Amino acid sequence: MSDEEDKKMIDIYVMGRRYKVPEGLTIMTALEYSGYKYVRGCGCRGGFCGACSTVYRKEGEYKLKMDLACQTAVEDGMFLVQLPFVPAVRKGFEIEDVDPKQNDNVLLEKYPEIARCVSCNTCTKACPQDIKVMDYVQASLRGDVDRAAKLSFDCIQCGLCSIRCPADIKHYHLAQLARRIKGRYIDLESSELAKMVEELQEGKYDEELNKLCSMSKEELKKVYDERTFQKEG
Amino acid sequence: MITMDGYLYYPGCTLKTKASDYEESAMAVMDALGKPLVEMEDWYCCGAVQSLTTDDLMHQLAPIRTMCCAQEEGENELVTLCDMCYNVLKQANKRIKDNPDDLETINEFQDEDPDYLGDVEVYHLFEVLKEMKKEIKKKVVKDLSSLKIAPYYGCMLLRPTEIAVDDTEDPKIMEELIGLTGAAVIDNPKKTECCGSYHTVNRGDIVEKRVKEIVGRAVEDDVDMIVLSCPLCQFNLEYHQRVTDFDVPVLYLTELLAIAFGLEVGLKKHKIDPIKKLKEKDILE
Amino acid sequence: MKVKRDLEFLDKVEELSGQSVNACIRCGTCSAGCPFVKDMDVLPERIFKKIVLGDKEGILEQNTMWICAECFTCSVRCPRDIDIAKIMEAVRQIVLREDIDKVDLDHIQNLEDLPQLAVVGCFRKETA
């Protein structure tokens, strides 16, 4: 406890109620410090899974801010609320049916609501990953799957864009479809991948995999930390 | 309005997919005329139809954002090909010029971006071509005199009056441009009537009636093709001929110019194949 | 039939459209030039009459404003310089702003054939 006592304590407001927490905590740890327990809305704690989308406002500011609770430090006078997941519909598809060369408006066909985009840029402002969300929606609308996929590459599907959108667009599902189409139809096939699959099927790595599977957690950690990367080509 | 290297060009979404024939042919024609169209680095969907209520600024955001992009590229002129884009950009631009308060509100809302100062002018490609009649005539290498062509303006080039590229009730700009190719221009009294527009999405029956009237009149006059510049009219007038026994191809004016210039571009995405007709007339081999 | 007068509706239409509905002289030029009258329940100038009367219910049960495709033919021809397209837009907006969609976005036929500007245009005019 002594460490914490040395730290400066700040006030935060969780769903309207005030708590004193040590400075320097993330929103997520500050909520836990305040006595809340995450049953859901919390995943990797590392900024990758997109489960902990959160809304806050700082004292004296009119703007609502969006971020990931695990990646943002609490500040004095912060008003906080955790979001449940965004119940956005993801359209099913067969990868064989979404060839952009057969259908130049494939993204519009799956997500017609992108035609409602008014270019307000609210999505981009909401994105904790600093993705140009509006730009990839616009690229999708004009049939540019490649650009939509590239622009959205860092998306972690937290859903903050979709919950803020006045046009009810499901940005992150749209972007995922764009990336999948790019992977299947636009990117060049990797010869290394085909070779690797063949080797896997031939059982070349069976022995290595079995060895890994039988390791203890500590041994695995050691192997992971000491791993090296093979040079390309 | 002619810059040294050509024109800053706003495509609009449809020209990148369904109406790529239009973009391709317009680019080739302008290249041939020595005034290439240079696409803007950034642009946004204009919204296709202008929002008309006094209090709705939300739907003016996209066109104004695009005008701002032109401004940031250091240009004060913007050329569009699509009639709907032309209409919306021009109307939105006019609205904020007439109502500085609206511009201020929009600029304040888009606080992460530079302010739009209201100095960009929007032009339709036809306005550019009108100034280049001599150059166009010089480039014509194919004899199109066997073709009978009905021009079709639709709505968005001519109405409202304040943004019209020509006389609202009696336009001549297309007749003049088609005439340069040597083709016979057949007057179509339905040329300024609406094709049914976006009703094609969920009220195809309304568009079908319009198409029967507009294309029906062209058939009565025995025209070989209809020429226009709006991608939505182009789609409607060709697609909805499927409920008729008509067979009239509908070309973009720039496709016709490209044919006259001897350029092999466009003519790929038509629902009614124009190549058959052009071969019959010995214009294409 | 007795009309329930809703003068707030008249005010709202004039506010949203910026047009004076009372300037209409019922000459019928708008209806004469409209390419869509065959599909309309009532003619555009009859809508004017209903607006002046404040007959909100009578208007909202008609399809006239939804058949209007904003071609501006009436607007450029009106001898009283009323921008009729703006009146139609105002009436549409009064409905849409109650979060009512006039097109079912999830069940559009032939979506893969449609050019973007048709879809964008339709959604701008028929979704809330």
Give a brief rundown of this model.
Chain B has 285 residues and is an alpha/beta fold. Chain B is 40% helix and 10% strand. Chain C has two domains: 7-97, Fumarate Reductase Iron-sulfur Protein, Chain B, domain 2 (Orthogonal Bundle), CATH 1.10.1060; 103-128, no CATH class.
Overview of the structural elements:
The complex is a heterotrimer of chains A (233), B (285) and C (128). Chain A has 233 residues and is an alpha+beta fold. Chain A folds into 3 domains: 2-82, Beta-grasp domain (Ubiquitin-like (UB roll)); 95-186, Alpha-helical ferredoxin (Fumarate Reductase Iron-sulfur Protein, Chain B, domain 2), CATH 1.10.1060; 194-225, no CATH class. Chain A has helices at residues 2-6, 27-33, 106-110, 122-126, 133-141, 145-151, 160-164, 171-186, 191-202, 206-213, 217-225, and strands at residues 9-14, 17-22, 53-57, 65-68, 78-82. A 5-stranded mixed β-sheet of chain A has the order 2-1-5-3-4, covered by helices on one side. The longest helix of chain A has 16 residues, at 171-186. Chain B is an alpha/beta fold and 285 residues long. The N and C termini of chain B lie far apart (38 Å). Chain B contains 11 helices and 8 strands. In chain B, the strands form 2 sheets. Chain B has a 4-stranded parallel β-sheet with strand order 2-1-3-4. Chain B has a 4-stranded parallel β-sheet with strand order 6-5-7-8, with helices on both faces. Chain B folds into 2 domains: 7-126, Up-down Bundle (Glutathione S-transferase Yfyf (Class Pi), Chain A, domain 2); 134-280, Rossmann fold. In chain B, helix 1 (20-32) crosses helix 10, helix 2 crosses helix 3 (83-98) and helix 3 crosses helix 4. The longest helix of chain B is centred in the last third of the chain and has 17 residues, at 204-220. Chain C is built from 8 helices and no strands. Chain C has 128 residues and is an all-alpha fold. Chain C folds into 2 domains: 7-97, Alpha-helical ferredoxin (Fumarate Reductase Iron-sulfur Protein, Chain B, domain 2); 103-128, no CATH class. The termini of chain C are far apart. Chain B binds chain C through residues 12-14, 17-19, 45, 47-56, 59, 82, 84-85, 155, 159-161, 168-169, 192-194, 196-204, 206, 209-210, 213, 231-232, 235, 239, and chain C through 15-18, 35-36, 38-39, 67, 69-73, 75-76, 83, 85-86, 89-90, 93, 103-104, 108-109, 113-122, 124-126.
